[in-house]
Amino acid sequence: MTLPQLQNLVVIDQDLIDENHGVYYDKRTVEDLLNYGLILLDKPPGPTSHETVAWAKRILKIPKIGHSGTLDPQVSGVLPLGLGEATKALGVLLLGPKEYYGLGRLHSLPSKEKLYGVLNQFKGEIFQKPPQRSSVLRQTRTRHIYELEVVEQKERLLLLRVLCEAGTYIRKLFYDIGEILGPGATMIELRRSRVYQFNESQKLITLHELADAYAEWKEKGDDSKLRKMILPIEHALTEIKSVVIRDSAVDALCHGAQLAIPGILQISPNLSKGDLVGIYTQKGEVVALAESLMSEAEIKDATKGYAFVTKRIIMAPNTYPKNWRTKPKQKDQ
């Protein structure tokens, strides 16, 4: 199955696929997925995000797991985990919106007109100062509230759905709404229901389910459950544009080279200069994240020159054979 971001690409050139190196992104073994995988975890209320990651590392017996977007201890919901090298791709998820369902208690009972009037003031761009117990510098900053909806109200209890920019503090949002209303408001409970393209309609995984699936793989050799829980990390990159490169160019990029015109096979349509892209092998494996130095038209017309500057290397070096030469060192005269 072709990844959505690799469909309907503009063909620049064609090349043979080296079947002896790399692996099709959706044919990885469980061992490969433990280094290039993504788990959509349903974080329980109670532990910190850091503790949750530590438990996941202990369950899967791997040294490196990262998460996308910290959740406070009492907050539950979608917590994407990147396994091994896949941690390097998680930053892309911070570019998209997040959705929360928050339950708060109003300190007085305003009229419906007043409540909805105040809520409308918090749609669009707002100013926010992180709460005192936050882990970031407490400076006033702007955040965007895309949608703010009253799901249900029962007297002074208010359930809100908030679609917002990453880095928005929902507890502070309730507090500020209460300040404008007058007597105040306090958030009681919060759940994150969406991180960019991932939401609760997809199957979220609990730590218990993960532990059971891992045990079944190790003890019985049955990896069927674990395979369903670990997505290829490429699924995290569906919302950014794409570039497919020659197999002969892969290892050079993994060693820090920049992508030049001769290495490009396909690009996303309407590519613009400055776009963030995922760079892929012909098997759909992500190699790196990069920034475009040229537009689609410029790439089509050019025969040489650097087209992309690498921002983050994801694939481990030596996955593909070395097909590049270094300049010989000049002997001292």
TrEMBL record:
Keywords: Isomerase, tRNA processing
A GO molecular function held by the record: tRNA pseudouridine(55) synthase activity
Domain Dyskerin-like: 5-53
Domain PUA: 241-315
PANTHER family the record matches: CENTROMERE/MICROTUBULE BINDING PROTEIN CBF5, H_ACA RIBONUCLEOPROTEIN COMPLEX SUBUNIT DKC1
Gene, per the UniProt record: truB
Record's catalysed reaction(s): uridine(55) in tRNA = pseudouridine(55) in tRNA
Alphabetized CDD domains for the sequence: PUA_Cbf5 (cd21148)
Function recorded in the entry: Could be responsible for synthesis of pseudouridine from uracil-55 in the psi GC loop of transfer RNAs.
Cross-referenced Pfam families: DKCLD (PF08068), PUA (PF01472), TruB_C_2 (PF16198), TruB_N (PF01509)
EC number annotated for this UniProt entry: 5.4.99.25
Name of the protein this chain belongs to: Probable tRNA pseudouridine synthase B
Organism encoding this protein: Candidatus Nitrosotenuis uzonensis
Keyword Transferase found: no
